[in-house]
Amino acid sequence: MLEGKKIKIRPIEEEDIDTLYQWSNDEEINYWSSGAWPLNTLYTRDQIIDKYLENPSDTYRYAMLNENDLLIGTIGFKEVNIPCRSVTLFIVIGEKSYWGLGYGTDALITFVRFLFTQWNFHRVSLDTWDENLRAIRTYEKVGFKIEGRQREARFILGNYHDAVLMGVLRDEFLALHGKLQVAKSGRLE
């Protein structure tokens, strides 16, 4: 289990499926996470189980927990490119009462550090859409830089929007956030 200042990250378990199914059917969560409302709501419960537990393909998905072990979101990566040591990151805070409170920032810092120091990736990228300004500010706070746009690549509620492409390199991230250190107590800091 990974631990940040506010969050814990662990593998997704069967007990998480009902909550993940609820989030996949929530208009506001899907609107901000991907702009894919109502497309994401077409998943059945069995498809959610298949997606998260049985056949995750080349996608690695994890549960994000708060300080009291309440499931508040998911984080993960996909599109692993071994020769380039790069990967694409995704994150969703499904519990809306945790939006804007720093849980996403803490999860991103914790998880991206893990990807750079344990998986030995050189580059982490992600994308969002142009009106998701809260997410863009969070990504920039973590160290991601806007690298480009795909014009009108997203169709959201009847309108085309640009996809915003962002990335961070290992050296940039570690200069900003540092590596974990083992304290004399034996805990990671």
UniProtKB/TrEMBL annotation:
Keyword annotations from UniProtKB, A to Z: Ribonucleoprotein, Ribosomal protein, Transferase
Location of the N-acetyltransferase domain: 7-171
Highest taxon listed in the record's lineage: Bacteria
One GO term describing the cellular component: ribosome
Pfam families, A to Z: Acetyltransf_3
Protein name per its UniProtKB record: Acetyltransferase, ribosomal protein N-acetylase
Molecular function GO terms recorded: acyltransferase activity, transferring groups other than amino-acyl groups
UniProt cross-references to SUPFAM superfamilies, sorted A to Z: Acyl-CoA N-acyltransferases (Nat) (SSF55729)
Entries under Gene3D superfamilies matching the protein: 3.40.630.30
